[in-house]
Here is the input.
Amino acid sequence: EIVLTQSPGTLSLSPGERATLSCRTSQSLSSSYLAWYQQKPGQAPRLLIYGASSRATGIPDRFSGSGSGTDFTLTISRLEPEDFAVYYCQYYGGSPYTFGRGTKLEIK
Amino acid sequence: QVQLQESGPGLVKPSETLSLTCTVSGGSISGYYLNWIRQPPGKGLEWIGYIYYTGSTNYHPSLKSRVTISVDTSKTQFSLKLSSVTAADTAVYYCARGYSSSWSAPFDPWGQGALVTVSS
Here is the structure.
């Protein structure tokens, strides 16, 4: 099973700032089967990024993903008020699919 | 626009079987992998398993002995059964379709989620 470690656990920033979230995998992902989701309270997760760097349909371009191997990053270039939420990374390249524990992005 | 909706009892007694159904509307399930995911209150996400529209399945190893996922393509529904439940199975249960027709696809769209509480 591939374990995903997200850091930091909580990130406190202000609107307009840049957010950088990290996801490290326990094994190298040779085909970048890495996704990022945003979850707001009481809502289902929303797919943001797949294939490590491809934006899902309708996702604003302030969200970007990068990385390869074992180190992946989600960057939000300029935080909007609606971006404050919990973010999860996910491995979907084989069973079992696994998720990181999440990074909570909160307003400073 | 494809939408998914979970339905089923919100309260299940310990040792009994949890049963949920996901209804897909506005789109097809043919050619897609259909997933169940759960999230205990205040915690992270756990993939439970998937079923392909043809009926082939794959389950999380930790739940494999208790999980059954089935599909009814005529009704565009798929279902989850989890047997011998305990309080540790209390969670919001989500259904989700694969973002593409590949087996290796992230999950999108998702249902809104159904809270299932295990308690006597």
User: Anything to note?
Assistant: The mean pLDDT of chain A is 96. The beta strands of chain A are 4-7, 10-13, 19-29, 34-39, 46-50, 54-55, 63-76, 86-91, 98-99, 103-107.
